[in-house]
Specification:
- The protein is α+β, with helices and mostly antiparallel strands and 291 residues long.
- It is 49% helix and 14% strand.
- A 5-stranded antiparallel β-sheet has the order 2-1-5-4-3.
- Helix 2 crosses helix 3 and helix 4 (68-77) runs antiparallel to helix 5.
């Protein structure tokens, strides 16, 4: 038996296993006696809007490789999860499906506790479209208090091109900005989020001639898992961080970004900024003036 037949048999086995786990009655099919549990082949074909003969051939390992459209229809018919859909494509076509962006900005309390435990290392969680959805205190004092911004403005790309603080914090803003644009383009393309970020791109092209020029370059850059980031802090002065990015377990749409102070002196500066923030929060507000 050659490798292709083996793959097709694995596909057929997977399809049979998944259709047997579905409840015919819940899906609107007659409540009648069945020799085996789950849906019949023709019922799956009906739900997928494909030929019953063609679907039967797929389970039997005949008829050649299915198209991506057919696999998408079968995935919906069998009510596959995202992971199961990816497995279906790997079995049927030898590659994962094209990315489909699903917006989900919820961050669990567990993830927030992880961020908080990383103080005094600035850390945040961003989406595939670079919206910052969670951060710790150290991230607040490093450059910007995301909590002071409306949720729709907590975007790294927007901040980098439309906020003067971003330009002031960089030693070589133009070079870093070009890298940022290319990395953003790569991340959103990989996530299948072109339509999702289109309004943001349109706004930035209108408001920032520099972004317009860089976007037209059509450059792609990959953010390495580790790098060094240098910034000019308005209070602490020059700071250097070892930058690391990690995928969030079970959430392919989220990335945790951690900035570890590069030297003990950098760590002391962040610790001082955090202490000043805590002291400011502890101070009672003065009594209201009586006029």
């Amino acid at each position: 038996m050659n490798e292709l037949v083996a793959k097709e048999n694995l596909l057929g086995s997977f399809l049979r296993d998944r259709r047997k786990k579905l409840d015919p009655i819940a899906l609107g099919f007659p409540a009648e006696r069945r020799r085996t549990p789950g849906l019949r082949r023709e019922e799956v074909a009906q739900r997928a809007h494909i030929s019953a003969t063609w679907y039967t051939w797929l389970e039997q390992g005949r008829g050649g490789a299915p198209s991506a459209d057919v696999l998408d229809r079968i995935a919906r018919a069998l009510m596959l999860t995202g992971v199961e859909r990816e497995h279906l494509f790997l079995l049927g076509l030898g590659r994962p499906p094209e990315a489909r962006y699903n917006k989900n900005e919820d961050v669990t309390p567990r993830l927030q506790r992880v961020l908080d435990a990383l103080d005094p290392c600035p850390a945040m969680i961003r989406t595939a479209t670079w919206d910052v959805v969670a951060w710790n205190r150290a991230a607040t004092v490093m450059l910007i208090d995301y909590g002071s911004l409306p949720p729709e403005q907590r975007n790294i790309l927007r901040f980098f091109f439309l906020d003067p603080r971003a330009r002031a914090s960089q030693h070589d803003w133009h070079n870093v900005a070009r890298f940022v644009v290319g990395a953003f383009r790569m991340d959103t393309a990989r996530a299948g989020a072109a339509a999702e970020v289109a309004p943001l791109i349109e706004e930035l092209r209108r408001l920032s001639p520099e972004f317009e020029a860089m976007w037209r370059e059509n450059d792609f850059r990959r953010i390495h898992g580790e790098a060094v980031k240098h910034i000019k802090h308005p209070v602490a002065g020059p700071l250097a961080f070892e930058f690391s990015a990690f995928a969030v377990d079970g959430r392919t749409d989220l990335t945790m970004v951690v900035y570890h102070p590069a030297t003990p002196a950098d760590a002391d500066k962040i610790a001082s900024l955090l202490a000043a923030l805590v002291e400011k929060e502890r101070k009672p507000r003065g009594a209201p003036k009586i006029i």
